[in-house]
Structure formats: structure tokens, C-alpha cells
């Protein structure tokens, strides 16, 4: 595969996020000029302030786009990007958006925000690649479950559901390949780790890496909501979060996919590798 011109600016929208930080780092390591855009960066970008859109897009040749979930703003932004001359778009989407049963409460009517972004990028006229990762392994460290893991007791309504955790390092590596190499146009990469782990296996692996016990405590949805309300959440937010977790207990997140191998020519990083690196970073220190 041939590499794109390293001097062509690559816009990273969502550069402060889990994947955006890694995409920016990897591009820089490979000598590419990047524009890391976020609300707090030099390249200030705010989805809800369209006055910030043109500055980050002007002169960019390629773009990594993390969508704005609450409403479908990505289609308008993608159209604006192409008007500015962006020739290649790598879009971060998500698992299950083409499965109405994945989250029927949200996906059942077919009006999926992330799906609107996919439709827009396919119709944009630019070269495009779509990434559909499952649950990020980093959610167990720097993300939404990190506090629970550091406490040593993780109370979640996972049941016995297995998860094929995907390391965000792999998501970023696929994004960088699609941004800088040929051969990825028109492809949708379903991304998962190499194995699906049940909760006991997941937290046993974290315990081994962290050098201390992390217990999984299965709870019902109602118990989960009560626990989150006790932390200061609203009941509505807690129930919405429980709904977003429901595919795990229904077995919808155990599927394995070959997107990492198709894009990079190697297997996805194992959960043990993720856990080892996370422990070394100190993310699980109480």
C-alpha cells in the first residue's frame, strides 16, 4: 500500500476523546501533519457552534470523524467538509446500528443518529471508510467503568453476557491506516477483540494485571439504577445507561469480527495485553 502525502493536513474531530487522542498520536509518530480539533484545543471545534467548522476544515485533505451522538449533525458537517476539499473521511460509528434488535428502544424506528452519519459519508463523493467497534476495553480504565474497577467491586447488570472488548489502540491503528494508505475506500470494518469474555473472566484478567482483587457483582437493572442514583445520578440517566448496557446481558456483544485483521494484516490485541498496559499506566491505582 502507498502512503498519502505526509504534509497534507489530517483533521481529527474529537481529538480529546479515547480514540481521537490515539489517532492524533499515531499520525504524529508517522510524520503526518494533524489538526487535533476539540472544544479545548488550538483547533477549536464545537458541534453546536457552526462558526467553528470552517476554520478546522479549510485546507484539510483527510478527516477522522467522531460523531456527535445527541442529534444528527454529522451529515451537514460531512457536506461542508467536502465543499472545503476534504477527499477522504474515516468515520467512527458503532456496533449494532444495522440491527434493530441491538437497542430496540433507540434503533427500532430506524432513526439511528450514527446511521445518518454513515449514510452521509457514503453519499458524500469523498473516499470513505467506516469503523464499527464494539465496547472499548478502555471503558474499564479511563472510561465509564474505571471508578468501579478502582473501588475493587464492579456492580453492573451484565448478567453472564460476554463482551469482545476492543482495544482503542487497535481502533486508532485501523483509522490511521485508512487515513494514510490506499485500499480502504468503501470498506466498513466491524472491530472486536480476539475473544469474548464473560464478566468473571474480564475482571479476573484485570485482577491479575492490577495485582489486586476486582470483584464482579451482578445486579439487576433496578439495583443498578438505585446504586447510580445513590451516586447522584438522576433516575432517568441511570435507566438510560442501563438500557445502553442491555445488549451485553442479551448476548449481543459477544460477536467476534475480523476488521482488525482485514485492515492491518494482524490479529487484534488481546484483553490481557490491554490489561497489562492499563495496569502499567497506573489507571487502576486506587
Automatic annotation (TrEMBL):
Q: What is this protein called?
A: NAD(P)H-binding protein
The uppermost taxa in this organism's lineage are: Bacteria, Bacillati, Actinomycetota, Actinomycetes, Streptosporangiales
Domain NAD(P)-binding: start-end pairs: 14-181
Q: Which InterPro entries match?
A: Ergot_Alk_Oxidoreductase, NAD(P)-bd_dom, NAD(P)-bd_dom_sf
What Pfam families does the database record attribute to this sequence? NAD_binding_10 (PF13460)
Listed SUPFAM superfamilies: NAD(P)-binding Rossmann-fold domains
Amino acid at each position: 500500500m502507498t502512503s498519502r502525502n505526509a504534509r497534507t493536513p489530517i483533521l481529527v474531530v474529537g481529538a480529546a476523546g479515547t480514540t481521537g487522542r490515539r489517532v492524533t498520536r499515531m499520525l504524529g509518530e508517522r510524520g503526518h501533519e494533524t489538526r487535533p480539533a476539540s472544544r479545548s484545543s488550538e483547533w477549536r471545534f464545537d458541534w453546536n457552534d457552526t462558526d467553528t467548522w470552517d476554520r478546522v476544515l479549510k485546507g484539510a485533505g483527510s478527516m477522522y470523524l467522531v460523531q456527535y451522538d445527541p442529534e444528527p449533525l454529522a451529515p451537514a458537517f460531512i457536506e461542508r467538509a467536502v465543499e472545503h476539499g476534504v477527499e477522504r473521511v474515516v468515520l467512527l460509528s458503532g456496533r449494532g446500528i444495522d440491527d434493530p434488535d441491538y437497542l430496540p428502544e433507540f434503533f427500532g424506528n430506524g432513526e439511528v443518529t450514527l446511521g445518518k452519519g454513515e449514510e452521509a459519508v457514503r453519499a458524500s463523493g469523498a473516499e470513505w471508510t467506516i469503523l464499527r467497534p464494539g465496547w472499548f476495553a478502555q471503558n474499564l480504565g479511563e472510561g465509564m467503568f474505571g471508578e468501579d474497577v478502582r473501588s475493587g467491586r464492579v456492580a453492573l447488570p451484565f448478567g453472564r453476557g460476554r463482551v469482545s472488548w476492543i482495544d482503542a489502540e487497535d481502533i486508532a491503528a485501523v483509522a490511521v491506516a485508512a487515513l494514510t494508505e490506499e485500499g480502504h475506500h468503501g470498506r466498513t470494518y466491524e472491530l472486536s477483540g480476539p475473544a469474548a469474555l464473560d464478566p468473571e473472566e474480564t475482571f479476573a484478567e484485570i485482577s491479575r494485571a492490577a495485582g489486586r482483587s476486582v470483584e464482579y457483582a451482578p445486579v439487576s437493572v433496578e439495583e443498578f439504577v438505585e446504586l447510580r442514583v445513590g451516586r447522584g445520578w438522576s433516575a432517568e440517566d441511570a435507566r438510560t445507561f442501563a438500557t445502553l448496557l442491555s445488549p451485553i446481558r442479551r448476548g449481543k456483544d459477544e460477536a467476534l469480527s475480523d476488521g482488525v485483521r482485514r485492515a492491518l494484516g494482524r490479529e487484534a490485541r488481546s484483553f490481557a495485553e490491554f490489561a497489562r498496559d492499563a495496569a502499567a499506566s497506573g489507571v487502576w491505582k486506587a
